[in-house]
Design brief:
mainly alpha; 5 helices
Length: 109
Amino acid sequence: MTETYRGWPNRETWALRQHIGDTWNKRAADVTRDAVTSRPTWNSPRQEGAHRLALELKDWTEETFAGVIYGGDGSLAACRLVDEVGSRWRVDFYKLAEALVDEAVSAAP
């Protein structure tokens, strides 16, 4: 059975999307533009941009979770992110990155 939540692969992916804002929208546009100019041969620029962005999102959430769990970042925003996302391993970073790249492409002039 396929689990979906509000159009996302699962609740954790949806929750992370709710917490990332304009900074990641801008980053998606930058990564997509870089993927277009670097002209990867094995992926389309959209796929390459989504792949790169997914890796960045995964690293960022790992750092954020570690900061809250092991001390360091006790900001309210970081604590809410950890509390509401819950299981970072269940987040579908690629699907989230694809959505951000698609939004960036559709918003481009």
